[in-house]
Design goal:
Largest sheet: 5 strands, antiparallel
Shape: globular
Strand content: 5-15%
Distance between the termini: 63 Å
Helix content: 40-55%
Structural class: alpha+beta
Number of strands: 5
């Protein structure tokens, strides 16, 4: 029988590593369980004339949340729990700096095993995911927005009702998140490999997107024949006014604004603002484009540079005017 080393003989770093491994493995195992069930529902309901969509969305949404938790736990447990006491925060961030007898092992074990600490909400988990995978933010942002709405409806509505559109987008997000995290350096232990049905769904989803955009453009062109010019005003950093490629009316991109900078030979920065678009809506012809790939298929720019006046406004809103906090006043 293999001898199990008691916690008293472990260093703080070893204890943290064992605890972190145990928690992330449990989360990963649960995530893949919901993932497999959700995908089975997906493939079954796609063939049905009267699909039962809610169970599939519920399982896939839960799988996504647990996959994000497993990934963050694999990196550092501080990223998973939002109300840790100071002792645990220090333990998880710098265990090498603590002596083995400086904290009570039994007390900490009881706290963690009893789930005394709450994990971060979905929105905060998504924000952390973006920090680790910034290159995926623009493409997946519309999908995460839909996920949040579906999850809220599942929790707060007595009889939530979803359509095939929401199911397929949730499934696409779940498969995308799985593939991204499965390739990361600090990947959780996801014991799952995509099946032929999973790969077929991804292929058909992309093909259907092309056909969906083609139909949207055809309808929009017909509507454009009787469209009247529309007036719009972007009133936040998450919106951007542009010209509709179909009818020429004013349309609205949604996304987010970020600061970029060019550097001269002396290393002096010249900052500027860019807008990263992920959806588009035109009230003139009625076209609605729901993600980055649909924008590309319609020939729209997904990165726009904001004006210098926007830069001035940005600094006015984001630069602190009260510096007393920096001087302890």
């Amino acid at each position: 029988m293999k001898k199990v080393e008691s916690s008293k003989s472990l260093t703080m770093k070893e204890y943290v590593a064992l605890t972190q491994d145990r928690i992330q493995r449990e989360l990963a195992r649960s995530a893949i369980g919901y993932f497999k069930v959700g995908l089975e529902f997906l493939h079954k309901e796609r063939k049905s004339t009267h699909p039962l969509i809610e169970p599939a969305i519920g399982n896939l949404a839960t799988a996504i949340e647990l996959m994000l938790k497993a990934f963050l736990a694999k990196n550092n447990l501080v990223l998973l729990f939002n109300d840790l006491p100071l002792e645990l925060t220090i333990l998880f961030t710098c265990p090498d700096s603590l002596l083995s007898d400086s904290l009570s092992w039994r007390y900490l074990d009881n706290l963690l095993r009893a789930s005394a600490h709450k994990t971060f909400e979905l929105g905060e988990l998504i924000a952390s995911f973006y920090v680790f995978c910034p290159g995926k933010r623009q493409a997946l942002r519309p999908y995460f927005k839909l996920l949040s709405r579906c999850r809220n409806a599942s929790i707060h509505l007595s009889l939530p009702s979803f359509q095939r559109y929401e199911l397929e987008r949730t499934a696409y997000l779940a498969l995308s998140v799985f593939q991204i995290l499965d390739k990361e350096k600090y990947s959780p232990s996801f014991y799952y490999r995509l099946t032929k049905e999973d790969k077929r769904f991804l292929s058909e989803y992309n093909e259907e997107r092309i056909e969906r955009v083609r139909r949207k453009i055809e309808v929009a062109k017909e509507n454009a024949k009787k469209a009247k010019d529309t007036w719009i005003l972007a009133d936040s950093w998450d919106t951007y006014e542009t010209t509709c490629p179909i009818c020429g009316c004013g349309g609205m991109l949604t996304g987010e604004t970020q600061v970029e900078a060019d550097f001269d030979e002396d290393g002096i920065a010249s900052p500027y603002l860019i807008f990263l678009a992920d959806t588009f809506q035109c009230d003139g012809c009625g076209i609605s484009l729901d993600d980055v790939e649909e924008l590309r298929l319609a020939g729209m720019h997904i990165v726009c540079q904001r004006s210098d006046s926007d830069m001035d406004k940005w600094w006015a809103e984001h630069e602190p005017t009260d510096y007393s906090e920096y001087y302890g006043e």
